[in-house]
Task: structure prediction
Amino acid sequence: MIKLTRLNGSTFVLNCELIESVESTPDTVLTTIHGKKLVVSETIDQIVDKVIQYKGKIMFISRDELIYS
Result:
C-alpha cells in the first residue's frame, strides 16, 4: 500500500498492485486495473519511488522471515 494525496489535500492509501498506468496531464492521473481514475498531487517519479520503497520493504520482510524461520 502506498500513501497518496488528492488535490484537495486529503490522503488515502492505494494497493499499488492495482495501478495500471500513471500519466501527467499535467495533473498526475492514476488509472487502476478496474478503470478507476484517481488524480493525485504526487508526481510520476514520486509514485514510482513509493512503489519501489513498498516493494523493497515486502522483499526485506519476506527475506527476514525465511532467514529467521
Remarks:
- The radius of gyration is 14 Å.
